[in-house]
Amino acid sequence: MAEVIIERTPQAASARAARHIAATIAARPDLVLGVATGSTPAHLYRELARIRDRDGLDVSRLTVFALDEYVGLPAGHPESYAEVVRREVTDALGLDPSRVHVPDGSAADPFAAADEYEQRMEAAGGVDVQILGIGGNGHIGFNEPGSSLRSRTRVKTLSRSTRTANARFFDEVDRVPAHCITQGVGTILDAGHLVLLAFGAGKADAVAAALEGPVTASVPGSALQLHPHVTALLDDPAAAAL
Ligand code: GLP
User: CA 172, CA 163: separation in Å to the nearest integer?
Assistant: First the structure.
């Protein structure tokens, strides 16, 4: 059973997550932090940067691995997760860019890039704390419904619903890439501590299915129930179906 923390606002939940992660980094400066993209964790990263500035948190030895990346966007595309992570995490926190890893979605061979990413994570000793969002269809990372719960980092096809949800970052849905490289559900479950953030009524059903429904590949987020250390930070609307 996950530890579920419900706050009144996304800001309050994000601040709480940031305080916890900052304390973990302070205790263990060589932490390997897994980061999610999307709208949900943006405030958490801003809050972490604020704590770093205020308390002088040492992030010089922090290593970061992103969950996923689109395949086929040109390097430097502003909506590539490499760029999102650079803006929201690397630059915001003043991290050493050589310690920040994102799957190479512009590689000539994305299948090889996915394997190489998994090996790079292993060589780093795995992720200690993984920040997660959840898709309205229950996806974690870009593991769409139907993803094997033991899957590793690989190339996946994005569902229409995910491409539609992410069309807000592109001009139109047809410009959202159709493929991605994502850490597998099994890869995510290897992290030491999973910190799930979910905000808004649109996530309520996915959150309830993930935390309280049957464990099934139809809801990849339900794999969190297989992990011994999960903290879910929700706002009231996202917790409404629990
Ligand atoms: C995106 C990302 C996920 C993210 C999820 C929810 O497509 N690949 O890592 O957690 O979908 O996104 P958002 O936080 O924008 O709702």
Answer: 9
